[in-house]
């Protein structure tokens, strides 16, 4: 493979299922990538990263691995691959990596993600990347990419308007595309976040509460109806969040609900990211995916009783001992 | 023990955790009781009933046991101890037992229970008995009474008014009291049904969906809040069901919600009847406890999104393979 070396340098905070996968793809394509690791540092420092992928397995025997952020060089792009449940770490991890030109690209799910990061990195452009991927870290430095893989990249602006496409975003998108990643650049990041929430709120929550795959959920008419009712509430929340001077609101087309349901019914059986976290005994991204949209809708004066019910059920599942998988 | 033999005769349809327990208590106190049995017939015909009870164990080596309703004599009182999930059987089982003076006493949970029975037994007075008991059938003809045991008896009238206390109801109540059962006669059966639903709707549902005892649920602030929100919706449903000419509506005092929550927090850990059914692999009483109140509220023009969400989740739990208990 002939690769064109990118002029951008990258740091990956959180070298796991998402950050590890996309970071490895970027390095394979010739980008300079610095990986921050925690438990896997010794393994990755010695043996690099290994990716088993439906798009073709590959290994990177040598990577720039770091155990401490203080040892990492300044970079052009910091990619945040941590789960939102670990975001308390960002105020320690992020500032040392930020030079005057550094942009931050967060690959995290949920709502109000960029605002949280902007508070830590107020001088940096903040971009969001929404990943449509099924991947998992199956061992130290060992990532298994099971399905999908597309990413939607958009710019965050803290005002109520689309973020447009700044030149740095285009450059990052070019690197992702050169790395073989199906990449879409979106002008309105919030619109894309809300679209993803229309799916994530019902299916992440219900997969945990009901211990079920997408296929099992869609096969049960009661669950399908509940998913539809939840999606309809998310669409209403998205619209309401434009009220009262709030900036996150977006008007989604109502037909998104039936389109997503129909699409989900024909998907291969899929274990949601929250279900994977649950099965692995990790904390659930309940605040980013459910709590933040819920609170934004409440602040805008809209009650979302179904989302609220699922929020509390998922919180309860997040606390209790985990059930075995079927 | 000196017993005063009652002049009333009883038939028990469904000789299980509830019908078997109360029927056995009545016989022990001197009443004539005829028990309809299905799978347990041979055992009970040969060896009678055995009750292990916190109030004192006892055995009835000889009972009037029947495998077929056609063999049973006419009685004064038919006690329905079947789960509501078996109510399709009633149109076969009930009519042969009904003489011109027979009253029907249903010990079933939920809403709209008496109307369903009245359609099968239009000439009979219908009474409801709400049981506050934790009991279980642990083997053929073998009942384990774990806790509580009180019963509230009330008359059903298909008009929007309390049923009052007909003489037959007083006579039945006297037999129950003589049998050592804590018995309350209520003038307004629907009021008592709604009060019980305020508890049953959240705690039966959540115990199944979250695989939890009352103690575990109350220890989690999110579940307590959700139970409170569900109870508040049930109180609203109870009020709304008086609209549009419907007869089941009742105005409950709003403080019932905090009172029941506080009481539940101090109860001994309790496995709800729906959770017991779930753990035993039996169908769940989801239509009687959730579906009927939900549809009555909808017919009265009230949306109950939280109850609806739990209804669909419990329906899903009723369909999927059962999870093991923790």
The overall number of domains of chain A is: 2
Secondary-structure element series of chain A: EHEHEEEEHEHEEHEHHHHHHH
Helix fraction of chain A by DSSP (H/I, runs of at least 4): 40-55%
N-to-C terminal Cα separation of chain A, in Å?
43 Å
Class based on secondary structure composition and strand pairing of chain A:
alpha/beta
CATH class wording of the largest domain in chain A: Alpha Beta
The H-level CATH homologous superfamily of the largest domain in chain A, spelled out, is NAD(P)-binding Rossmann-like Domain
**SS strand fraction of chain A:** 15-25%
What is the approximate shape of chain A?
globular
- Largest inter-chain interface? A-B, 28 and 28 residues
Largest sheet of chain A: 10 strands, mixed
Number of strands of chain A: 10
CATH topology of the largest domain in chain A: Rossmann fold
Query: At CATH's second level, what is the architecture of the largest domain in chain A?
Result: 3-Layer(aba) Sandwich
The parts of chain A where pLDDT drops under 50 for at least 5 residues are none
Give the integer mean of the pLDDT values of chain A: 93
Give the radius of gyration of chain A: 19 Å
Q: Output the number of helix runs of chain A.
A: 12
- Assembly type: homodimer
């Amino acid at each position: 493979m002939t690769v064109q070396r990118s002029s951008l340098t990258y740091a990956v905070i959180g070298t796991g299922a998402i950050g590890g996968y996309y970071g490895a793809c970027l390095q394979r394509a010739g980008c300079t990538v610095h990986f921050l690791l925690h438990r896997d540092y010794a393994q990755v420092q010695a043996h690099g990263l290994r990716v088993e992928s439906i798009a073709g397995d590959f290994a990177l025997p040598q990577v720039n691995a770091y155990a401490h952020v203080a040892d990492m060089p300044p970079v052009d792009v910091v990619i945040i691959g941590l789960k939102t449940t670990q975001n308390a770490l960002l105020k320690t991890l992020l500032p040392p990596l930020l030079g005057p030109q550094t942009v931050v690209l967060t690959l995290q799910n949920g709502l109000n993600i960029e605002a949280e990061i902007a508070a830590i990195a107020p001088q940096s452009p903040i971009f969001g990347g929404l990943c449509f991927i099924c991947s998992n870290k199956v061992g130290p430095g060992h990532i298994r990419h099971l399905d999908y893989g597309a990413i939607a990249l958009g710019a965050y602006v803290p005002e109520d308007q689309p973020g447009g496409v700044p030149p740095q975003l285009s450059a990052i998108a070019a690197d992702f595309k050169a790395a073989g990643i199906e990449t879409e650049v979106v002008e309105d990041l919030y619109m894309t976040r809300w679209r993803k929430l229309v799916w994530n709120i019902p299916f992440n929550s219900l997969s945990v509460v009901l211990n079920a795959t997408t296929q099992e959920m869609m096969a049960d008419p009661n669950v399908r109806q509940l998913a539809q009712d939840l999606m309809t509430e998310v669409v209403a929340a998205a619209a309401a969040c434009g009220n009262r001077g709030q900036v996150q609101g977006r008007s989604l087309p109502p037909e998104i609900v039936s389109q997503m349901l129909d699409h989900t019914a024909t998907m291969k059986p899929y274990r949601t990211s929250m279900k994977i976290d649950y099965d692995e005994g990790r904390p659930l991204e309940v605040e980013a995916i459910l709590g933040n949209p819920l609170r934004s809708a409440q602040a805008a004066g809209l009650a979302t009783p179904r989302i609220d019910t699922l929020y509390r059920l998922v919180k309860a599942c997040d606390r209790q001992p985990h059930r075995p998988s079927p």
